[in-house]
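Input record (one chain):
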Amino acid sequence: MVDEEKTRGYHGGSVDSVISVEEVTRQAAAIAEDISLEQLDELAGNKPHVSIKNLVAGYGQMEILHDLDLRVGKAQSLCLIGPNGAGKSTILHAIFGFNRIFSGTIEVGSGSEMRDVTRMTPNQKLAQAGIAYILQDKSIFPGMTVEENLWMGGFLKNKPNEAKQAAEMVFDKYPRLANRRKHKAGVLSGGERRLLEISRALVMDPEILLVDEPSIGLEPRFIDMVFDILDDLQNTEGKTIIMVEQNAKKGLEFADIGYVLVSGQLAIAGKGDDLLKNSKVGELFLGG
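The corresponding structure, as predicted from the sequence alone:
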């Protein structure tokens, strides 16, 4: 039973009253701002590496995203927050090619190196455009060893040995996995499984990481470990990260940029630190 004296906000925090998803959506829509492309470009350092323009996307005949724009610079991180059903994961799916795009464009790169990846398949996006998708929990192969799971991450490599060489580079980077290379993935802890999921995506050496709910189902100590890994990938290896994170506070603390999505549209955009200080965002998504 929900304690109505101690539940408030959305995904975390101490609380005073229950707010339904529908009410969060209504209140979030009420505080939505007019956001220009110039503002989005500025947040991306005026050098966007991933650009989404007027995107309409969804599943089957259902449109979930409505004329959505998005900008994130190279080696930047963007966190998408919002109520359930707002379209956050749908954005990741659209970028990677998991759903239907009705109209709009998705571009990667800048200047003469800009590529329209809108209609590429997921395999093409991974192999040719350097986009990798890190799914939510339970995407590993539990009956395979850690090593075999990593080899699976290189299935698009031209030669099997290339995947094995890439896996060895991952083991060099993460001794925690190296010590368990011959263990079945199904016996790993929650934090180790998430590390394996991230590492498997790295075998193809992507430039852009789409990360879906990195903290879901993890103990606090493992959440910190996962965000430390993502921070290293962004700030040491120059990866561009677009994530959906149900722990809005943790996600905004990590990310350079934050977007609040409501009903398939962009409601608020700003620096992660600024959204953390926004009292309206705090009340709805950060627990007060």
